[in-house]
Records
---
Amino acid sequence: MHRSPFAWIINHFSYLQTYGLICFLFFLCLLPIGYFWVETHLVNIRLIDEQLGELGEEETLKTLFGQLQEHRLLAMRALLEGGENLDNLHSLEQTIMRTFEEAKTRHRLIGSLSGETVIWQRIDLQSLESKWKDLVARLPRLTPTESDILHTSLIHELLIQFGNLSDKVGISFFKKIANYA
């Protein structure tokens, strides 16, 4: 008569050995589940790290946004007052250039870490920086209205960059962004 393996185990193993075998088989079945659970969490951790880096870039763009707003006000004041207090304006221009460099560094770093290149192609810091340099070069020859229009255009393009990052990350440090345009 042919006996099943289960019957053989029951007849030849003690109660404790049978219980141990059943526990071993149960935990053996849990190994793939545990592996995939850990792997999924590691993917999520990498995604969160990427998003935090993008939020760091957003923080740099937020700083740049505030500096451009301040520059618009100082430029307007300098143009209306006939060129007085240019020291603050020139100092702020240097600060803005350093912020652009920091933003480009973050942008390159995050772009190289991220596997997605489409979002990084939409964020064009080179274009923003070239428009900024053009604005600074033309500023002494501009009227207050022209200066305001160029500053507003530059700030609007920066808001588009915020929108791109917010779409990618899904969250934003910069609340109520439309109120500042």
---
Amino acid sequence: MPAHRQDLLSWLSIAWPRSDVGSVTRLTGWPRWRVEAEVQDLTQLGLVAEGPDGLLSPLVPAAGLWSAERRQDAHRAAAALMAPGEPGRMQHLAAAHDLEAMVSESLQIAERLWALGALGRARAALTEGLAAARALDDAIPATLLARLARVALAENTVLALETTVYEFGRQRTGPEQRDTL
């Protein structure tokens, strides 16, 4: 298979499940007509399926076509095209191993879910942010802990409250950070 088709399959797998001609055009930087023609060829070869909604699904694994570093860069590019807090962006940041961005993204997602009343999902997003901050080996941002406490108090379940108390206990804080909480 020619390299440009391998690239397109890889971009489709990065963008999936939100891959359509428009998103793949933005990711590849190719002209739209080229993406449409290549997608048509890949569809005829049985390597891509196009749904009635225009979404494209690669039908063959593309993970081995690019190096891990190139896939991380592609996920970073996909995340950059999405608005903060947009569904799916956190997965791209995680695949790109962009831990700092994951911390800030978790706050964006939690805020959106808080507004919707989806407290358990907001707490899960904040927990992802905590894990990313710990992987950075940084102190947990006070904002993250404060939002976790706010969500847990609103959720008012034993699990949410115990988890939050546990997270506060794990945190190494100095007097200046405790004052911000």
